[in-house]
Amino acid sequence: MKLKIIGICGSPREKSNTEFFVQLTLDELKKKGFDTEFITLRNKKVQECSGCYYCANNNECKIKDDFDDIFREMLQADGIILGSPVYHSSITPKLKALLDRAGFLGRWVANDMKEKKQAYDWKGTAFSGKVVSPITVARRAGQNFTFAQLLLWATVNDCIVVGSNYWNVGVAGKGGNVDAHEDTEGIGIMKHLAENMAHVIKQLNK
Questions:
Q1: Tell me: the pLDDT tens digits for 156-185?
Q2: Phi-psi map region of 59: left, alpha, beta (phi>0 left; psi -120 to 50 alpha)
């Protein structure tokens, strides 16, 4: 069975700059023998987490939308690329909704709720040991905080984070343009990211 890497794109725009960089990285990984899948949230319905704690006792999310299918793909993947454009120094709302619900459900899949006075001895999460890497795209600024949001999600969910020879960021979209193909430095960063992801995942699965 081939090792699988999925790329989740949080951009609401069709053929966006973020999609370009995520797909480019997946294409490089496919050349290296991985099974890859691109998942766009653009046409998906993913409601925000309601904080109901239903998942803590039932091992599933109470909200029924496109989340379940994406969550299943995340669980089955060996590697996950999380891509988002920068919206006011933040990831997009739909990607935030997905990650909030995935992180919360993923924790309770692997752990039991404790009484208020009991301390937690966490046994990992549903994403423990998965290789995760963020990609963010901005016209000019806001990259660092957005990139950090995705890193924080990966680290709190017990994932292994892979980087490149620079932060995995692209610079594109002045005036709304779709021009990521002109960012030659960004393209180089994503290609090296693919090399690093391939190496780490193959080492982990020897």
A1: 999 999 999 999 999 998 888 999 999 999
A2: left
